[in-house]
Amino acid sequence: MEVVKIAYLTENEFEKLGFDEVENFEKLRARAELAINMFIRNLYDFVDFEKELEYRKKAVKLATAFQIAYLDSSGIMTADEKPSVVGSSVSLGRTSISYKSTSKASTEGSRYNLSLDALNALKGAGYGYRGVCYDRY
Question: Which residues does 56 contact at the CB level (< 8 Å), separation at least 6?
Fold first, then answer.
């Protein structure tokens, strides 16, 4: 079985969603898709994205757009880079300010280097569910 990779989002679609034009769109899109694919566990290596339900395709496209904008504005390209920027703190005398967030959503997004907006778009369409269904019939 040959795996064919398709782009989730074109540059034209990105701009139609209301996002500002970015430099290096192709590079940022590739990075964004890597993070999204890790989060959705490479689902579209096995399922045809074009035949997916419309609301789920929209969620992936929107998450890709949010992720591209996030990568462009933050400059954080990998999950390894995130703690050094996001988890930083400043101390002045006896006063200390920490920028670390410990919410479950921020921890989950950090694991994949997803922006909170991208994570919300994906979770809203049912991606990321990790539960077990017990059928008692």
Answer: 125, 126, 127
Q: Establish how many alpha carbons lie within 13 A of residue 57's alpha carbon, considering only the half-sphere containing its beta carbon.
A: 13
pLDDT tens-place string over residues 44-71? 998 999 999 999 999 999 999 999 999 9
Q: ∠118-77-6 over CA atoms, to 5°?
A: 60
Report whether 125 contacts 110 (CB < 8 A).
no
What token pair was written down for 68? 């591209």
Torsion angles phi and psi, residue 96, rounded to 5 = -130, 135
87 Cβ neighbours under 8 A, 6+ residues apart? 98, 99, 100
Confidence label for 79 from pLDDT (cuts 50, 70 and 90): confident
Task: Work out the angle between the directed axes of helices 116-124 and 104-112 (0-180°, nearest 10).
Answer: 100
Is the separation of the CB atoms in 122 and 128 below 8 Å? Answer: yes
Q: Is the pLDDT of residue 91 over 80?
A: no
What ranges in 1-137 are assigned the alpha helix state H? Answer: 11-16, 25-39, 54-74, 82-86, 104-112, 116-124
